From TrEMBL:
<dbReference type="InterPro" id="IPR008925">
    <property type="entry name" value="aa_tRNA-synth_I_cd-bd_sf"/>
</dbReference>
<dbReference type="Pfam" id="PF19269">
    <property type="entry name" value="Anticodon_2"/>
</dbReference>
<keyword id="KW-0067">ATP-binding</keyword>
<dbReference type="InterPro" id="IPR045462">
    <property type="entry name" value="aa-tRNA-synth_I_cd-bd"/>
</dbReference>
<protein>
    <recommendedName>
        <fullName>Glutamate--tRNA ligase</fullName>
        <ecNumber>6.1.1.17</ecNumber>
    </recommendedName>
</protein>
<dbReference type="GO" id="GO:0000049">
    <property type="term" value="F:tRNA binding"/>
</dbReference>
<dbReference type="InterPro" id="IPR020058">
    <property type="entry name" value="Glu/Gln-tRNA-synth_Ib_cat-dom"/>
</dbReference>
<dbReference type="InterPro" id="IPR014729">
    <property type="entry name" value="Rossmann-like_a/b/a_fold"/>
</dbReference>
<keyword id="KW-0436">Ligase</keyword>
<dbReference type="GO" id="GO:0005524">
    <property type="term" value="F:ATP binding"/>
</dbReference>
<dbReference type="GO" id="GO:0006424">
    <property type="term" value="P:glutamyl-tRNA aminoacylation"/>
</dbReference>
<comment type="similarity">
    <text>Belongs to the class-I aminoacyl-tRNA synthetase family. Glutamate--tRNA ligase type 1 subfamily.</text>
</comment>
<feature type="binding site">
    <location>
        <position position="258"/>
    </location>
    <ligand>
        <name>ATP</name>
    </ligand>
</feature>
<dbReference type="InterPro" id="IPR033910">
    <property type="entry name" value="GluRS_core"/>
</dbReference>
<feature type="domain" description="Aminoacyl-tRNA synthetase class I anticodon-binding">
    <location>
        <begin position="338"/>
        <end position="475"/>
    </location>
</feature>
<feature type="short sequence motif" description="'HIGH' region">
    <location>
        <begin position="21"/>
        <end position="31"/>
    </location>
</feature>
<dbReference type="InterPro" id="IPR000924">
    <property type="entry name" value="Glu/Gln-tRNA-synth"/>
</dbReference>
Amino acid sequence: MASDSVASADGKRAVVTRFAPSPTGFLHIGNARTGLFSWLYARHNGGKALLRIEDTDKARSTSEAIDVIFDGLSWLGLEFDNEPVFQSERADRHAQVVQKLLDAGKAYKCFATAEELAQMREEQRAAKKPLRYDGRWRDRDPSEAPEGAPFTVRIKTPERGETVIEDAVQGRVKVNNSEIDDFILLRADGTPTYMLAVVVDDVDMGVTHIIRGDDHLNNAFRQLQIIHAMQGIEDGWEDPTYAHIPLIHGNDGAKLSKRHGALGVDAYRDELGILPEALFNYLLRLGWGHGDKEEFTREEAIALFDLEGVGRSPSRFDLKKLSNLNGHYIREADDARLAKLVAERIGEKADIDLLTEAMPVMKTRARNIIELADGAAFLFKERPLEITEKAANLLDEEARERLAVISARLKGETDWTMEALEANLKQHSEDLGLGLGKLAQPLRAALTGQTTSPGIFDVLVLLGKEESLARIDDAQAASASKNQ
């Protein structure tokens, strides 16, 4: 694989980031934020954002899960600068690197059996020592092993000194090399470990900046051992810049879980009715900030994003805040676009033109597409309407009598506009000495079958004269039948 890393005009390596999800389920909200930060950092620096699918777990990696990742990233508007790299297709290259390490004496074959390793760990527990491989095959000749015995390949890590990482988020972090054991590169079946495959792929893809969750910080110390061991064996094995981002917690400070809203990106779209720009903005602000600014366009995010703005403390995911932010973006959204999204939920009976006309009044209080669809559903209900119990309670005998008078007045109305209808019914309420609400409540129940809706005059205009009058007459008849 040719490296994507190139020199910039000032001689420095141009920024190349990567997002590397595992297709073992949905695109988790935390992974999506990592992908967003990696993508933004590359875009901000005029570099490349690459995508790799870490699908070496064949039992759990499915084509359906891969499609879900692609779909979620596309919905968020994260377009990458390469065809996706599939880690499972690179096993030969991973093995090639291991062979080079063996040839250079920087890795070795370990013939320890599972039983021997289990006994080793038991003895370490009894002695209250750290559980790590003791290097028993580090300096032994492979000829000492029984012929044909299975083996793993382990790296020879330095026994003295320390490994230091100048992390772009966490700052300077270090570990004594004596704490890093000779970890496995190739399993006994010849398959590469995660630790090996990630490093080889990052180097071959020319990745300069690795932005990921801080649960991978310990992995970085091990992965650097492979990089350092390969320096002098092959060109291109340069230390990357690491940026380990604190994980997302729930709003109670506990580890993020489904009860906090830790769903897949597709669920926020399909089950919660969230707009992509709302989720984009919310994820951006989870752990990153720029002064007091709360809302960012995509262009602003690219222009302003830097790693200096990423905090060192875990951010807290608040579904209510996301919902409120989504409501803002719904109010800002194009009416025709919202109408199309709502129509997809309502089904074949939806009228796009009518929905587009309705959006200005429908979207004022909606927090998500589901609420929009539920609120607009009355427009397409077939008569006679199914009326909720609360709405039916408003249609008593007195209300039915008032509806009869309202129906007669509206039948004579020749100007079916909000202004004319409002003037008509306000005059009627004044004639009766009643507040307009006393007329609007049963009228809303008759027209929508519910107790909540947009303004009653908006409802009348959207339904039109013929449908409105027919629904009022239906409600009168149903109420009369109920009270007989």
